[in-house]
Amino acid sequence: MLQVTETTERSTSTPATVDSFKDEFLRQLRYEQGVELGTASRDDLFQALARTVRNYMVDNWLTTVETQKAAGSKVVAYLSAEYLMGPQLDNALLSTGLTDVADTALSSLGLSLDDIRATEVEPGLGNGGLGRLAACFIDSLATKNIPAIGYGIRYEYGIFRQTFVDGRQVEQPDSWLSNGTPWEIPHTDQAVEVAFGGHTEQAIDQTGRSVTRWVPGETVLAVPYNYMVPGYGTANVNTLRLWSAKATNAFNLHIFNSGDYESAVRAQTVAENISKVLYPEDSTPQGKELRLKQQYFFVAASIKDFLRTLPEGFDLKKLPERIVFQLNDTHPVIGVPELMRILVDERGLAWEDAWDITRRSFNYTCHTLLPEALEVWSVDLLGRLLPRHLEIIYRINEQFLAGIRATYPGDELRVRRMSIIQEQPERAVRMAFLATVGSTKVNGVAALHSDLLRDKVLDDFSAYWPDKFTNVTNGITPRRFVQLSNPSLANLIDDTIGTGWLNDLERLKELEPYAEDASFRKAFREVKQANKDRFVSLLAQRDGIELSSDALFDVMVKRLHEYKRQMLKLLHVVTIYDRVLKGEIKAADLTPRVVVFGAKAAPGYKMAKEIIFLINSVAKVVNNAPELEGRLRVAFPANYNVTLAEKLIPAADLSEQISLAGKEASGTGNMKFALNGALTIGTLDGANVEIHELVGGENFFLFGMTEPEVQSLSDAGYHPTSFYEGNASLRGAIDLISSGIFSGGDRTAFEFVISDLLYKDRFMVLADYQTYIEAQERVEVAYADQESWSRKAILNVARTGFFTSDRSIQDYLDRIWHAPAFPVTK
Ligand code: 8GP
């Protein structure tokens, strides 16, 4: 089982003994689940256990909430449309220090903690990196004793469950709430109303001023569900508050009684759809409208929620001293005009004062560089859904552009470029621009990304406001991604440098000298081997995929996107097969390798789905090719999620971070792999640049063009066909795919993917192919010398402590939030 070593620093709200824990567990089982121990289902056991652990956090949580409120300390409100939390039980056990107690208590009842924890269904309330980052950040905020609250949406259905049918992705709804979740506490009494639609009108207030009033067309209720976010090694327990939509009037009894049942509940359905699904397909106008509704829904509820905690008569000019709203990408940006509306229309502040307060209360984190990923909302839609907000956005823009005109007289081209409102191809609000104008600080998520943001994507804005732009390199929580996911490594580290590194991760540097210690290297290899064995048995049981653990584990897990270049990895696989078939290399000379892919494609993203089909088709043939027996296997377990990541990442030897330079904002998987002792094969993109610098070039397999090289190739005119024609090995791989060998003889099966590669290849897969293959050859050579490989792997662990999300949060505090820590003492 996962054995978690106790450290001395953590606190428990209520000292628990094995007996008291057992009693509480049995009480939960009997009185909350309503079952006897002997007849309890696995889910009953899980629910009872989770609630038992949860209850040990409640005292500290209530104390935290009360003392922070009484002190009136500055609060960080993290606004995020996604939180990809992963399973909660182990984290709750770790932070309460109850792992061993629970294990012993359950064993004494003839139960296994391992079995019970395996039944937990993770809340998949996020798509990928952005959502997982939010989850890491709230963990670090709590650990660092920062008064903070995470605000988001309680989607009834999270990210879809991916299945493969004949190699193709088929999405199933993720009904993570079907058994209920023990981790949430609803507060129906604290619901707030959120309005939509209607119109605005002019009125005269009591002081004789002309004011604008929004007369909404409909309202829905936002019901808060609280989740505890325990810090590690502290009594501090923060809150994650997710909003669920409810109709203001459940249904119309009059219509119901008339027999028109569908109409009677229509309003309810429409309202409750708002929090029904994470990121509904937004290729339809209805989908777009729902998405914007979701954004406004949670942001409006959150701002209202915070404002009602202020004492009677609070001077709103002091708001920025009490709160800082962090915008996790553009999804919550509608909060800027919302706060303006509240301050001006509802609280009667002058526009200038309101603007000063608003700008000082918001900051914006951008997570992308792809222009198509920058959100815009059509003026038509926004005006229909939020008419008053549109007026406010126009006024903000007018005032902003007046400043631009004053600074750059006569430069109308610049004015058009910088306008919050775009005119073409349709009149729309550029949310990233609104975020930039409405915030004090704008940050990118890795050094390179922040530079490109400043110098390319938002260059006009950084020229105008040079001090507004800053960088905060992402990080990951080592509690989940080292201690919980890799307990054997955590134990080895404890035994080597002592405890205390989990919230002081730079201490991993103390491991450096042990890279030269043969017995430590051996122990380190044993940990990796045990993790591979664990993953292999999990995969056999979870997916029926049989693998040998005696191989190099080469892993590429992330969302499926062309810029991330899963195709490049696949071309490597196909190249090996092609060369073996042609007798250019002998399979017996190859290092046995297991290639693991994990990726979900957005449901409407055709190319990504075709690439999934191609990977599965190649895997099927390669895995059955007698020529490659024992040398190359491709595994693509469906439904990659946090639960699987926690088992897979510790088992990896090689981490694939192969995006085209200048496209991946940061990446956070890259950090998790390095911290778990995998070596990176990667381009100089996102946070790879910093990983490469920290671990050293000799401990990283670097390849590919740099961002300026990408730019010049693109400027010179990129012709992928010339790479195809000029490289026999690449031609061999592509021709093999086109030959029909992976599609039962059908030569057209992958045409959609291949013709795009040959004639467009927007992300320059073919241009980076050769250096990638060469880097993989260096991997083969390096892996053959296990002592040297272990040395490199250990140095990766020792030198990547920088990537703890505790450091990211400290950077946000120093550069952006300036909110003091407020430790809660028990
Ligand atoms: C991701 C970026 O792609 C990744 O480089 C970065 O590490 C991560 O954010 C955290 O900063 N972006 C997203 O996950 C993203 O844009 N998701 C969209 C679906 C909203």
Automatic annotation (TrEMBL):
Superkingdom of source: Bacteria
An example Gene Ontology CC term for this record: cytoplasm
Enzyme class: transferase
Entry GO MF terms: glycogen phosphorylase activity; pyridoxal phosphate binding
Keyword Metal-binding part of the UniProt annotation: no
InterPro entries reported for this sequence: Glycg_phsphrylas, Glyco_trans_35, Pyridoxal_P_attach_site
Protein name according to UniProt: Alpha-1,4 glucan phosphorylase
Species of the source: Flavimobilis soli
